[in-house]
Design goal:
Layout: E1 5-9, H1 16-26, H2 30-37, E2 46-55, E3 58-67, H3 77-86, H4 91-112, H5 127-143, E4 147-150, E5 153-154, E6 159-162, E7 165-168, H6 172-177, E8 183-184, H7 195-204, E9 214-223, E10 233-241, E11 250-261, H8 269-278, E12 283-290, E13 296-304, H9 309-319, E14 326-334, E15 337-344, E16 347-355, E17 361-365, H10 367-377, H11 381-396
Parallel strand pairs: 1-4, 5-8
Antiparallel strand pairs: 1-10, 2-3, 6-7, 9-10, 11-13, 11-14, 12-13, 15-16, 16-17
Helix pairs in contact: 1-5, 3-4, 4-5, 4-7, 8-9, 10-11
Length: 402
Amino acid sequence: MSSDTLVYDCFSGISGDMHIGAMLDLGIDADWLQKELARLPIADEFHLDVRRDAKHGISGTKATVRLTGSPGHHRHLPDIERIIRTATYPERITELALAIFRHVAVAEARVHDKPVDAVHFHEVGATDSIVDIVAAALCVDRLGVKHVYCRTLELGGGMVRCAHGLMPVPAPATAEILAGVPCRYDGIDQEATTPTGAAILRQVVQRFHAPAGFEAERIGYGVGQKDFDIPNVLRVMLGTTGTPVSATLETEINQEIHCNIDDMSAEAFQPLMDRLLVAGAKDVYLTPIIMKKGRPATKVSVLSGPELTEALQEILFANSTTIGVRVVEVSKRMLPREVIEVETTAGPVTVKVVTLMDGTRRWKIEHDDVLALAAASGTDYLKMKAGLEAEVEARLGADERT
């Protein structure tokens, strides 16, 4: 069986150059990659230096993007899109590279409260990061794997200096990109994962956990630039897995808090639900039930992470008439999903994309975004929804809409 699974082991984090080194160490031909990168219209601005190196006795490949010209500073996403499209790579590679950049653009826009196209790309828009991301798209496409996993990711700690001054680790953009991803924060007192590395993982990884039944056939190490107390290398493994179809589902352990209420007015439930959701509940729902002696009642169910159970219990006691709650641990199984932002002529919209068990995908635009854009433009909801879906469909694919 040919290798169909790629596993990232980021025990020391990940950066763009470490990713290049790991891909080359895994077997991607360096001459081929150099030739492909030379198609970029900024090829006169850089040289990719590839050599053997080691950290703490672990040897691997160290890739360094060395600037040879005057890089274009303060590039915006449209500038970067033009640079990548001008190289005329196959569309799948172009779209993969652009998708990685969009993760960073959306994160930076949220952090700095700016429109996506107005974000100045300092570190990420610099020549070396354009090379890092295009190289990632080229290499991942070259491997042609069906499944991509990532074990728990180290982000690091302390402070890092960037264009805006000293920032906490993880950098705000990195934290935004990796929201919802299992991470470690205390293994290294430096920046271990960069925004570029985070964006690569967020786009190419399907599941952030170790695969069951994985058999590694090749292992590569990308050597980092910094020195840590632990080996600063990115390990990638290429092999096969006998993972059954059901293993494509993501699993999440939560706690469900519920109580039965038969002596509270119907109007009081909505503010109760609002308070619970604002406090961090993942879901709140009401179920009509019949209690003993035939009394009609309402069951309130609250889903939360274990860390919020106590706080949500207090809200239930303080804002409802219940005098007791039940708490049970529940295992939630979910289709892999991704939330992305898509620019449309009416404005940006949030789109949830899920991957089905057969590998196909479907998507849905956030309802609140449709409402807001319809209200802002004076257009009725159904007309706005149809227009937005047509634009997103053109970007993501006609056969993926839910």
